[in-house]
Amino acid sequence: MRHHGRVPLYRDEAVVLRVHKLGEADRIVTLLTRRHGRIRAVGKGVRRTTSRYGARLEPGSHIDVQLHTRTAEPDAERGHGRPGGLDLVTQVETVENYGAKLSMDYSAWTAAVAICETAERLTAEEGEPALRQYLLVVGALRALAGGEHDSSKILDAFLIRSMSLAGWEPALSDCAVCSAPGPHAAFQVAAGGTVCPNCRPTGSVRPKLESLQLMSALLSGDWVSADAADDPASREASGLIAAHLQWHLERGIRSLPLVDR
Questions:
Q1: Nearest residue to 155 via CA among 221, 108, 195
Q2: Number of Cα atoms under 13 Å in the Cβ half of residue 18
């Protein structure tokens, strides 16, 4: 299924989401591509200092990559993940090395790491097209590298828009349970967002109106309003967004606690 529709040698644009070691000199690279969704591939010899493109296969890099489809070995088809079933990186050209640009800025770098981890988690099926998610990742990394907005708000905008793509957009005005017109004062992650007095479950929180307005601005791309939000509203909105995301994922994003808020 992973190689359905692919020719043996193919090319795509991609963002490097994650890398890990394989043997003495190789790496397994997780890519989010424009046309082929999430792919894991082997970069042969990229950990050697003489590698022609090892530095281009780092997390956060936006690349033009050529890959060779390798026939999956039987164990890989059964889910054991043997490297022989992974595609092989044969050529890499840098489009933009966002990872290198962000590595000197702790706030921006930790936000980028959280973006990459979240994107990987939200594209669970390898080889399934995920163009809108890919464009969100590229846009977020570009905004971080350009210093266009506060890095924490760029991350939160990415997270809430990614949840919207996944079908988990939080209700921010009307009641998440009965759709009664809002705004409503209570918010419950398990219920799906803001809730009216009749539907409000035990344990609901009462965020500031400014926090919900900031979440709406981040979702819609209203950066004039988002940039004007104060620190308390920003921190509360960040907490609600992270809680909403991790409740739907059913386990935490490991890099989120490291983000400099």
A1: 108
A2: 15
Q: What is the pTM of this model?
A: 0.87
**Domain regions of the chain by residue span:** 9-99, 149-258
185, amino acid identity: A
Assign a CATH topology to domain 9-99. OB fold (Dihydrolipoamide Acetyltransferase, E2P) (2.40.50)
User: Which residue is listed with tokens 């989120």?
Assistant: 256
pLDDT digits (tens, 9 = 90+) for 119-173: 999 987 677 889 999 999 999 999 999 998 999 999 999 999 999 999 999 999 9
CA distance 116 to 118: 5
Q: What is the pLDDT of residues 215-237, one digit of tens each?
A: 999 999 999 999 999 999 999 99
Per the listing, tokens 């022609």 go with: 52
Q: Can you tell me the distance from the alpha carbon of 121 to that of 257, in angstroms, rounded to the nearest whole number?
A: 16
